[in-house]
Amino acid sequence: MKTFLGWFLIILLFTGFSFLFVEATAEIKDIQTLSEVFEEHVAIDEIHLPANSYMYDRNGSVISEIYNEGNREYVTYEKIPQQVIDAFIATEDRRFFDHKGYDATAIIRAIVINAKSNDIEEGASTVTQQLARNVFLSHQQNYNRKLSELLYAHEIEKQYTKEEIIELYLNTIYFMNGVYGFEAASQFYFNQPSSELTLAEIAFLSAVPNNPTHYDPIKNSENTNLRKEWILEKMVEAEVITSAEAEVAIAEKVTVSPREKIDQFPDYVTYIHHELKELIAHQEGFDKRLNKAGSEEQREAIEQELNVRVNILLQQGIHIETALEPSMHIKANQVIQHRLPQSDVQSSAVIIDHLRNELVAMTAGKEYQKFDFHRGFQMYRQPGSAIKPILVYAPYIEEHDVPLQSSINADNFCHSGYCPKNFGGAQYGNVNMTTAFKHSYNTPAVRILDRVGIEKAFSYLDLFEFEKVVIEDQTLPSALGGFEHGMSPLELTRSYTPFARNGLYSPAHGIRAIKNSEGDILYSWEQIEHELWSAHTTEKMRTLLAEVVKSGTGKRASISSSYVGGKTGTTNDYIDMWFVGMNDQYTTGVWVGKDRWESLSSIYSHSPHLTIWQDIMSN
To answer: Which DSSP string corresponds to 248-300?
Structure first.
């Protein structure tokens, strides 16, 4: 009996032990290391810091600095001066290259000091902890935030080298006045790269992040200079500079001259922002998705996605190279300001270098402010007779190969109740095409459009991709510029470039290339040439356009050039006045009008659209 009971107890205990062992084994599998707990609750993706982007003119000069979440000029570890690194290590974290993200000795010291004062007086944050705070956390002073700093610092030290951490740190710290990172601070306060700073200037700037408001280099430079001396003493203690070097730096008087943000040519820059969005949409397929969108809600969602994509790109510190010719752009604005002193009369000029097929200047209106309504590409107006070359005469010549001396009736015309008249109601009988074109007679243009066929004539406009041209525009009045919405100055000027480019068309753009900080091309426009007009059509159209300036409606636009030609356009009641013309190198379009649909009859006799064009294109 005792033996049986003993074996029973042994079996029972063994069974219980086995059960506990199995359960314990299962639990052990679920036990996480401290590191695994950190990784689960402290997620650190790759750190990306927003950096400044830049826009350049055709000569490589910066015309616009684009800040994202502050002014930051990101530099890599190799380009950071050693004395900058030494200054921050000596003052912020002497044991930076030895610890693993936190300094236990400093933490204990801080706890004792804070306990005595019953407040948080000393932080004991390492450079890594400060990086964690700048990137992932707030600057609120409490123990929860300090604990979070430790957790994040632990993970940062696992994923990044010490060199990468100090690089990130020196690019994130705040230097007051919207400036982030040491390099941007050097550029902003001293207008020179950090590699050219003296030891005194380095120590001066290194003082700011400790308390940016208190050590503001502009408002509180005395405080900044005092801390500069303290930093130099700490650098001597850390044996990274000598006492003699410190004495020279202390004696050096540091003064700042804050540099204003570069932001020139607001009308051209505003358009380039728009074109950047167009370029991204084209190359990443957003434009196709927008065309296929089945509802306004879908379009808005895609537009929002596109805007986010553009903003992400701008935060990467890209370099936007443009074709801007500053002298021509400045001249165009000055001429418009001079020729149109009336406060309510506006103008836009678009200048395309058709030899390079580049947009070199575009004005948006008098007294233009960046990102306001842009009359160069956001305004659509009826083109008047300026549409005749591309909708009427060139298609007629292309389709029927008619000679310029062929006859056309310039008397009154009526078709299905539409009865347009020539300017002033005059009738001229049969005239040749050159005469009808250079004097901009209306009835011959309508007859020609009717002869070509409206649908056929409009097929030639398809290549230009006029955004606001609609099916309802396909009527006879379109021969005289009668459109529902019309064209922008940019669109209409682009449409004339085939007459200067042997009949070839590819839309002229302002952006040459989008590059990253290493100089690699990220995006650029693909120049695909389409033959729109044959050689004989182009030659005849150039002859007609030249006659307009020699002896027709555009005589006031005459300039000294081996070739000059163009076409005027005036809408009903003198609401809009146009002249689009070219010389050997540039195709330039000028629009004059008011923002409200009001008559320009009081200034029509002065032909401001022609004199503006002439002034811009002279010399």
So the answer is: HHHHS-----PPPPPB--HHHHHHHHHHHHHHHHHHTTHHHHHHH--SHHHHH
169 Cβ partners below 8 Å, 6+ apart? 88, 127, 128, 130, 131, 134
**Catalytic member of 125, 194, 206, 385:** 385
Does 186 participate in catalysis according to the annotation? Answer: no
- For residues 394 and 100, what is the distance between their CA atoms, to the nearest angstrom? 75
Q: Which helix (H) or strand (E) holds 614?
A: helix 608-617
92 catalytically annotated: yes
Contact between residue 442 and residue 450 where contact means Cβ atoms under 8 Å apart:
no
User: Structurally, how many domains does the chain consist of?
Assistant: 1
Residue of 53, 64, 73, 92 marked active site: 92
Q: Helix axis angle, 82-92 relative to 221-237, nearest 10°?
A: 90
Locate tokens 């230009």: which residue? 464
> Is residue 400 in a domain?
no
pTM of the model: 0.88
Tokens describing residue 286: 């957003």
Residue 127 belongs to domain spanning: 69-251
Inter-residue contact 396 to 452 (CB < 8 Å): yes
Is position 563 within any domain?
no
DSSP-derived 3-state class of residue 32: coil
What is the gyration radius of the CA atoms in the chain, in angstroms?
36
Is residue 193 in a domain? yes
Rounded to 5 degrees, what angle do the CA atoms 412, 415, 419 make?
A: 45
Measure the CA–CA gap between 312 and 516, rounded to whole angstroms: 13
| Residue at token pair 């409606």 | 553
What's 252's DSSP letter? S
Q: What pLDDT is recorded for position 111? A: 59
Q: Where are the beta strands (DSSP E) in 19-70?
A: 53-56, 62-66
**Dihedral of the CA atoms 595, 597, 602, 608 (nearest 10)?**
50
Q: Residue 121 has what pLDDT?
A: 42
Contact 608, 340 (CB under 8 A): yes
pLDDT tens string 6-63: 444 444 444 444 444 444 444 444 434 444 544 554 556 678 889 999 999 999 999 9
Please report the DSSP string for 162-209 in residue order: HHHHHHHHHHHSB-STTEESHHHHHHHHHSS-GGG--HHHHHHHHTGG
Greatest Cα pair distance in the chain: 140
C-alpha distances in Å from residue 542, one per residue of 271, 545, 565: 30, 5, 7
Residue 261 lies in a domain: no
Give the CB-side neighbour count of residue 284, counting CA atoms within 13 A.
17
Helix 199-206 to helix 82-92 angle, to the nearest 10 degrees?
Answer: 40
What's the confidence (pLDDT) of residue 119? 46
Q: For position 214, which CATH number holds?
A: 1.10.3810.10
CB 256 within 8 A of CB 221: yes
